[in-house]
Amino acid sequence: MRVTRPARRSERKSVNYKRYNALRMSTLARIQDLAAKEFSIDPTSLDPQAQLDTLGIDSLSFIEFMFKVEEEFGVSVSDENLKGIKTLADLERHVVDALAAAGKG
């Protein structure tokens, strides 16, 4: 049996937070752009924290929108995670997490 030592701090994988934040910002901008086109909403008026139903997005429309988001980003959001998405910011978080899990982030 081989015993390995824990990685030193300098050897640990570091997170590039600037890249991560840039990815989040561009992801949110892309989601807002898709939503604006899909739902005929002015993209500058889309508040990422607003509840989807206050934007006039019902559950059926949102599911159809999710197919477009998944296609745009090349990721899949699980049905379980889909239930917790109430805002565009929630959606963006799930997309970024899926991109990271797939090694695309």
* SSE-based structural type: mainly alpha
Radius of gyration: 17 Å
**Major sheet description:** none
Overall 3D geometry? globular
Mean pLDDT: 81
What percent of the residues sit in helical stretches (DSSP H or I)?
40-55%
Tell me the β content.
Answer: under 5%
Explain the layout of strands and helices.
Elements: H1 17-39, H2 59-73, H3 79-83, H4 88-101
Helix pairs in contact: 1-4
Write up this protein.
The protein is an all-alpha fold and 105 residues long. The protein has a domain at 48-105. 54% of the residues lie in helices and 0% in strands. The protein is built from four helices and no strands. It is globular, with a radius of gyration of 17 Å. The protein starts with 16 loop residues before the first helix and ends with a helix.
In short, what is this structure?
This protein has 105 residues and is mainly α. The chain has 4 helices and no strands. α1 crosses α4.
Key structural traits:
mainly alpha; 54% helix; 105 residues
